[in-house]
Specification:
412 residues; alpha+beta; YerB-like fold; 12-stranded mixed β-sheet; 7-stranded mixed β-sheet; 7 helices
Amino acid sequence: MYLGARLRKTISLMLLIFLLPACSIPLSNSSNTESHQPDGLTEEVVVEEPTAISQLPTAVPKVSEEEMQEPPPEATGVEIQPTQTIGPEPEQPINPMTGLPVDDPGVLQRRPLLVSISNFPPTARPQAGLSFASHVYSTFIGFGMNRYVAVFYGDYAEHLQEILANRLAEGNDDNFAIGPVRSGRIAFEDIKNQYPHALLITAGASPEVLSQLSNQVSVFGSSDESVNNTGVGADALGQLASDYPVDPLKYESLVFNATPPGGGESAEFVRIIYNYLNQNGWEYDQGSRTYLRSQDQADGSGELFPMIDRLTGEQLGFENVVVLWAKHSYLSPTVLEINLSYVWDHFGLLYRDGRVYEIKWSTRNGKLMIYDGEGTPVPLVPGKTWFEVVSFQSTWDRAKSIVRFHELPSDF
């Protein structure tokens, strides 16, 4: 009996422990039971009950392995394009001698061709092809006469072919594209040295001159009746230029900028006088932004006439005209040397955009560089450049804009 009473007492105590939580006051879920609304105001909260309860699926649908595979392009009717990388457009290659772009970078791997072109006797005029040259040098050859060295590089051959085809269609059967070609001079070697791997084309040369010319080929006319019947055809030019591939970086030396540099003086015209039978002029044309070349007729009048390219029928126009003062020396009565290689800080003039700038020029590193008195490069206009090479004795009349060539003293 004692154990039974004790057992009943224990059970009663356990029931009391379990029943006590049921009688406690429920607690709020909020830690702060105070209302944030002013006294006397009540807010009615409307709770919208859902009108229907969506039925959740009781099973996950099975997807077959075939349905998980991507359909072939034929099934969708959409053509799959290859992945394309979008980036900046490649820069157009630039001719380092003109600062102008070319369409085909391959033309810049053709070696430069230097061609000796006659200016005397006057029957050699008008010359053919000078307007297609990147650079032209006018050099003194003695007896008051000058001769040109035209540097052809880049896409000139394609332009020549087009011009010649048009002229042939018009009934003009040209004997040559470039010319008339005349004999070489020692000074041409110094000019050629500025263009690595260039080929010099002349109509032969005297023995004492020919021995001092390197990388040179001779062309001859079909007749001895005239000194003006020798030239080079467009096909021959293309073949000679393509025989030796070159690196265009070797010809980077000049700086180009379409914006004129500061300073300078107005110079709409400049006259180059060798003597009373050989005078040339350059007049700036605002429309084309070029200097147009004129020359006299070797009649002593000094009157200038437009210098025409025989192929185009148009007046020669060059964006830049550069006058270079250089040392001239007579080696014999008929052989003249002009020192253009590995010199520095020589005086010169740059004509561009109707203005003239005093410059210095150098070929100290084997490349022609043009700069100001402080050594800062002076930019040319992108385009072609004509170089007037004059003696140290030559003068410049700033007020009249005249460069007068003075022949050096000779012991012969």
